[in-house]
Amino acid sequence: MGRKSAKIAVRKGAADKARGQIFTRALKDIFKASKSGSGDPASNFLLKVALERAKKLNVPKDNIEKAIKKGQGTDGVGFEDVSYEGYGPGGVAIFVETSTDNPTRTVGNVRSYFKKYEGSLGTSGSLEFVFSRIALFVIPKSAVTSEDDFTLAMIDAGAEEVEVIEDHYEVSGPMSEFGSIQVKLQEIGVTPDEASLIRIPVSKKEVTDEATLVKLENLIDMLSEDDDVVTVYHNLLDKDSE
After folding, report:
1. What's the rounded Cα separation, in Å, for the pair 240 and 189?
2. Which residues contact residue 31 at a Cβ distance below 8 angstroms, ignoring those fewer than 6 apart?
3. Burial classification of residue 175, based on how many CB atoms lie within 10 Å of its CB (0-12 exposed, 13-18 middle, 19 or more buried)
4. Which of 46, 125, 233, 237 could be a cystine partner for 199, CB 3.0 to 4.6 Å?
5. Are 171 and 196 in contact (CB under 8 A)?
6. DSSP letters of 99-162?
């Protein structure tokens, strides 16, 4: 499958409906990157990427600093990563990644969202064969001087696919190659707009009933807007992407 459709399977926030939601998404990325390593972008590549994106979006500096401190645990609060798996209206699989200081609160909220929109929360591992994980890097065209050299460098680093989509490149590969692709990008002096491990659906679920689609959209939006939720994935078939 093309990796362009892989990005469509990722709902990060409520489709950028408002400036505040764009900021929230950017700050969640900073928190996640900070939590995964150092609070110094010089030694934490993912944090560097997240900070560059926040800068382009004009996210307030105070908010950025708070997100970094939160990720480092320097505010005295410990956070743990917890994932939830379930099915929404129409049998669409939904995988929810969270980072929370109160799992009891988070699971209660997530369960209530599924229930409200006629979905059901499943057990851990129930979607193991519905999604696979890949490394995905989004690089602006302006950062690349030679498409051929860039493509060869990425393939040499372990990428399986390098696609040109509008004004950027999408580089994707096995989850195990995330580190080597990241190192190669640093070596050639290219900073991506996004760098992440994402989940892509192995198979898609088609839903044609309009009322069911509305419920599904509302469920995904509600999950995405929860403060504890980092990313929401689903396997709804998007006909426009096929």
Report:
1. 35
2. 67, 68, 70, 71, 99, 230
3. middle
4. 233
5. no
6. EES-HHHHHHHHHHHHHHTT-EE--TTTTTTTEEEEEEEEEEGGG-S-HHHHHHHHHHTT-SEE
> What single-letter DSSP state applies at residue 18?
S
**Is the model's pTM score more than 0.90?**
no
44: which 2 tokens? 């934490």
Q: In this structure, are residues 50 and 30 in contact, taking their beta carbons and an 8 Å threshold?
A: yes
Instruction: Write the pLDDT tens digit of every residue in 33-92.
Output: 898 888 999 889 889 999 998 998 899 999 999 999 988 887 656 788 899 999 999 999
**Integer Cα distance of 173 and 134 in angstroms:** 6
Residues 6 or more apart whose Cβ sits within 8 Å of residue 10: 198, 199, 231, 232, 233
Which domains are seen in the chain, by residue range? 3-72 (1.10.10.200), 80-110+204-241 (3.30.70.980), 131-200 (3.30.70.980)
126: left (phi over 0), alpha (psi -120 to 50) or beta: alpha
The pair of structure tokens assigned to 75 is 């505010």
Taking CA atoms, 5 is separated from 13, 20, 26, 83, in Å, by: 17, 26, 22, 23
Looking only at Cα atoms, what is the longest distance across the chain?
A: 51
Q: How far apart are CA 104 and CA 110, in angstroms?
A: 10
- Per-residue tokens: 227: 């403060």
Rounded Cα–Cα distance for residues 204 and 93 (Å): 9
Residue with tokens 């979607």: 127
